[in-house]
Amino acid sequence: xxxxxxxxxxxxxxxxxxxxxxxxxxxxxxxxxxxxxxxxxxxxxxxxxxxxxxxxxxxxxxxxxxxxxxxxxxxxxxxxxxxxxxxxxxxxxxxxxxxxxxxxxxxxxxxxxxxxxxxxxxxxxxxxxxxxxxxxxxxxxxxxxxxxxxxxxxxxxxxxxxxxxxxxxxxxxxxxxxxxxxxxxxxxxxxxxxxxxxxxxxxxxxxxxxxxxxxxxxxxxxxxxxxxxxxxxxxxxxxxxxxxxxxxxxxxxxxxxxxxxxxxxxxxxxx
Length: 271
Known about the structure:
The chain has helices spanning 6-27, 35-44, 60-73, 129-150, 159-171, 173-185, 235-243; strands at 32-33, 55-59, 77-80, 94-97, 100-104, 116-124, 195-197, 211-212, 221-224, 227-230, 261-265. It is an alpha+beta fold. It has one domain. Strand 9 (221-224) and strand 10 form a beta hairpin. It starts with 5 loop residues before the first helix and ends in a 6-residue tail after the last strand. The model is unreliable at 163-168 (pLDDT under 50).
């Protein structure tokens, strides 16, 4: 198989994002650029120059509708998540380009992924601080078990740690992904608490990534690579929450991609 060049990964990710937008617009489904993609839109009007991944948010009710729409439409781009793929082990859904394939470098169990866009599902979380922290502690515990089962075996020489790691590997990571999803959905699928979080998989910590639901009304767009995409309504507050002075470029030594995969074109991908 021919390797996918670095410059091609950005283009594939952007075409996948365009597909998500087109399907969401056609089905009246809300989506939002998130993380470095939202930052790139505001600061660079496109990709962060040294980054090549794409992240989007969907509220839980919209995501469930996207799952159904994806099943109906089919085609080159496919949603993979624990709800529709029995062999998928990650708590983070992805929309993949099926003409490509990835070789993951850090995982025990690899699903047949292609170059992808990550979909972070926003679930309602309790407004009450103590109830919310109890939920987050439970999710953190399950996520630690998932990470132990998903990623490469420990190099620890401690017999108890090695036995625990072996046991979690034997159970398989999917069991924990499904539990994370079930617990995250249990609060209030209608978002009536007034707060949401990508609680199945947070990048910067659950409390930091707890947002007012009103930030995700779908009323604001931002240019990204020459097209308009939906961003959080208060995108400046969102970016400040995650990155503080988000218009300030990081030091040169930090300007690099962090993905852990090699990408290839499938045979006959261009036919």
